[in-house]
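Review this fold:
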Amino acid sequence: MTSRRCLRAGCSALALLATLHPFMAVAATGALVEAAPKSGAEVQQFASDPGREPFLSTAEKIALLRQKVKYVFVLFQENRSFDFYFGTYPGARGLFSQKPGATPGFTQPLVNTDGTVGTIQPFLIPETVTAAGGKTVSIFPADTDSVDHSHKGIDNSLNVDRDGIAANDRYALNEEGLTTKAGKIVSTATGLPAAAPPTLVQKQRGELVMGHIDCTTAPFMWQFADRFALFDNFHQTIIGPSTPNAIAMIAGQSGETQWALHPEQASSNTGSPVVTTSGGEPIVGDPGPFPGSNLDFSTVKPPYNPGDENPAKPALNQTYASLPLSFMGSQIEQTIQSDENPALDLLDVQDDIKAIWNRHLSPVNWGWYQEGYDHEPTEAGGTASHASYIIHHNGPQYFGYVGDNPKVASNLHGLGDFFADVTADKLPAQGGVFYVRGGYSNNDGLKPLDPNPAVQANFTGNDDHPGYSDLQISEALLADEVNAIAASPYWKDSAIVITYDETDGLYDHEAPVIRSHDPEGAPLGAGPRVPAIVISPYGRAHVISHEYSEHGSVIKFIDRLFDLTPLAFLPDEVKARKLGKQQFGQENLGPSDGYPGQGELLTAFDNARLTGQAPPLPASYATIADAQVKHLPHYDGQGCYALNIVPTDYVGGKLLDPAPADFNPRPGTTPGIPTSGTWTP
């Protein structure tokens, strides 16, 4: 198998061709699953062949999963598009899966600093460039600035027409603060012709949004994708930033049913909600949660980061159904007795509570582990500073029946607690659902490779959010988490979902199917694709699933596994969905676990492993050596070579998509153009 290193050296065309022929088959559940190119003896030993698996009906497969899987771990990262990570992954629906003319937004307008209009296409963010004088200059692609991922900004980038079709052709312009109007390029701020051409920083931001990386920069992500099931049709639920999609991970929405029940709470995508607090319904921005804010007078309040400015202007209390409500099961009536503000917190779920109680199901254990929520091992003393806690990433805290109920809020923990609980075998023996998130720092004590002081100071985060997280430090967190599970008794009963909240506004070529609109008529859901990988001893190995999926698919999988009533079919949600149709003419508002055609991640699991006709995947197959995890760059910067994978933007030894000559991955952090040596302006 050839490698990226081999391609640079000019290996034979036959060697390259041999890597690029995936096989296709129909899985037992009927969804198309495509195998990626085989890449090593161990991978070939465990690779699944969906065409030879025994047939299982959906009901039979779910029944077997209930016997085999007790623990669901959702490793929930931040702000990357599918194409950013896997746009050149062989076999996936990527940037070169079709001709450029058939790829929405492949060629986009970009305004130059002299006012002329050029074009930009997707490109590989390089490890190094050749600068003036012929010197090799390090770019450090693991550290990139954040781009515009606001609700309005992503809507603008998608450029959705009246028929709901996204052209995907304004990503670069949006980053320059520009758009099109009547065929002319104008300022997004004023709607008038721009007063001046873009600055170099603006232009470089327009370039950055079109960049992507591969197995050289993110070898751990590509290794997980290579060895297990990669989903190439997994979308963020809400067109917008982190908060609505963090909420969607546990609710399948960000407040559409609350808006239907309380139209006076409608949000505004201009940033000025109709209601007096910031962030009406549905939530489309990043306000902080009501629980823990200055407006929350509960006796015991969940934390805020002390540097957060949101406590005075929080979101409205979220009062619709979510998985934490369903998880209460037969103990729901007893559990809600501890709520300190039941009149507000439980206003819109009274019938849901009765329906959950009437099913007499055992409660489902759960936990949300997020860096900085409480005292972390990296902090001196025994007092939590919450300095690394990113409040608007904690979905459950937005619900008063979680944050205002000490009994329920006890399920919220810090990141260090996850490793302590897994290592010491403290998770409940009955199983459960456990979400894990990073933050502004990292518990491995890693620092970016870039010696620039600004990068060293700004990019120590581990949740993969551009602008403050280093990509390799972030994939090290994922490896730490998977390694901890693999080394524990939980591995043999586990399903691990690695996914992201939203794209950060980074380009993805697949046009989303718009099914809902916000109170001002702008596209609301669903959004662009984000990465998703499912790891399990009962998982398919070395496959790509095209199953349509969202955060609601994770919910739907959990619904199926623990026999929960889908959130969309709980009575108060059904009532609100009907109101949404009557009042707003929208059929698909509300929890996306009830959306027709929504996948449920079943294509990630191997029928032969579930039936015992093939052995489960061993923990060693998921493990990445700790020495590699703690060493930067990962695999010594030779990830594609180590994995024996050739990205699809290399053909005949030539890179198809080089970076623009003036490219800068951090135009706001380290402004300028590389000129010599290691780039430290």
User: Anything to note?
Assistant: The two ends are 40 Å apart (CA to CA). Residues 420 and 426 are 8 Å apart (CA to CA).
